[in-house]
UniProtKB/TrEMBL annotation:
UniProt-listed Enzyme Commission number(s): 2.7.13.3
Coiled-coil portions: none
Keywords: Kinase, Membrane, Phosphoprotein, Transferase, Transmembrane, Transmembrane helix, Two-component regulatory system
Residues of the full protein shown: 93 to 353 of 353
Statement: the UniProt record of this protein carries the keyword Ion transport: no
Origin species: Soonwooa buanensis
Catalytic activities: ATP + protein L-histidine = ADP + protein N-phospho-L-histidine
GO biological process: cellular response to phosphate starvation
GO molecular function: phosphoprotein phosphatase activity; phosphorelay sensor kinase activity
Name the record gives this protein: histidine kinase
Upper lineage: Bacteria, Pseudomonadati, Bacteroidota, Flavobacteriia, Flavobacteriales
GO CC terms, sorted: plasma membrane
């Protein structure tokens, strides 16, 4: 049977119980705050393109726009807002499926250098527009990895297009390096752009997180790109690290399993 508790022991137990309760309460509060913040972020991201669509549609419906060129311009803006909405929804859907463990990788062997060149081809025009150069540096001509090709293509697309968006400097260089190690291929994506301050650096992989300066840029995204990159690499049992020096550049590093073929 329970021995009688001294007043001191009783006090200690009560304190322990209430600390546990406090802990659970804190956890619940934190989850609730997280949920509120998440819903707030989603609706905020959807609101901007929706308001823009609403604005153009009602102007067109009012019938005041007779100039066909202007009408076309409005329709193009509606089109790009719709595309933006679809991208946000697609990104959110992908993150949700990753978090629910519903994404299966389609692992194959492929040449990582060839994939980097394919991504460069798609982004070259955008890079040229900003007078930036895309470069691949590799220890070998061909480096085979064992990974999900489409998902890794998305990783490069997100990292390189971020470098183009945020390097923000004419003549900037974006360099992808690939290097063979014993079991892995190590990869870096580096730019000599504006960099990220140390206080923001720890948060950039969070959903919806954007550094203040990029919030105001019109080509800034919704802050989901790096969260997706992290999920894709985690699904490959790899992590991604970042080093950055404010105003001089940013470097992302990760590894992929080498193909045994
Ligand atoms: P976004 O959709 O806003 O691009 P990301 O998740 O891809 O979101 O990136 C989060 C934030 O990290 C960006 O808003 C930007 O402020 C910062 N960032 C990402 N890559 C770079 C880079 N190469 N140079 C400077 N800042 C970057």
């Amino acid at each position: 049977h329970e021995p009688d508790l001294s007043l001191k022991e009783f006090g200690e137990r009560v304190t322990l119980m209430s600390t546990q309760n406090d802990f659970e309460m804190d956890m619940m509060k934190e989850m609730e705050n997280f949920r509120k913040e998440y819903v707030g972020n989603v609706s905020h991201e959807l609101k901007t393109p929706l308001f823009s669509i609403q604005g153009y549609v009602s102007t067109l419906l009012d019938g005041g726009v007779e100039d066909l060129n202007i009408r076309d311009k409005y329709l193009q803006r509606i089109d790009s807002s719709v595309e933006r909405l679809l991208n946000i929804v697609k990104d959110l859907d992908m993150i949700n499926r990753f978090e629910a463990g519903q994404i299966e990788l389609n692992l194959i062997s492929f040449d990582i250098n060839e994939l980097v060149e394919e991504v460069f081809d798609l982004l070259d025009l955008e890079a040229n527009r900003h007078l930036m150069k895309l470069e691949l540096q590799s220890t070998q001509k061909k480096l085979l990895v064992h990974a999900d090709k489409n998902k890794i293509s998305q990783v490069f697309t997100n990292l390189v297009s971020n470098a183009i968006k945020y390097a923000n400097r004419e003549g900037a260089r974006i360099i992808v390096t690939t290097k063979e190690e014993a079991k892995f291929i190590s990869i870096t994506v580096e730019d000599n752009g504006m960099g990220i301050k140390p206080e923001n650096l720890t948060r950039i992989f969070e959903r919806f997180y954007r550094v203040e300066a990029s919030r105001n840029r019109k080509d800034g995204g919704s802050g989901l790109g790096l969260a997706i990159v992290k999920h894709i690499l985690e699904a490959h049992h790899q992590n991604i690290t970042v080093e950055s020096a404010y105003l001089s550049g940013t470097k992302f590093k990760f590894r992929l399993e080498k193909s045994s073929l």
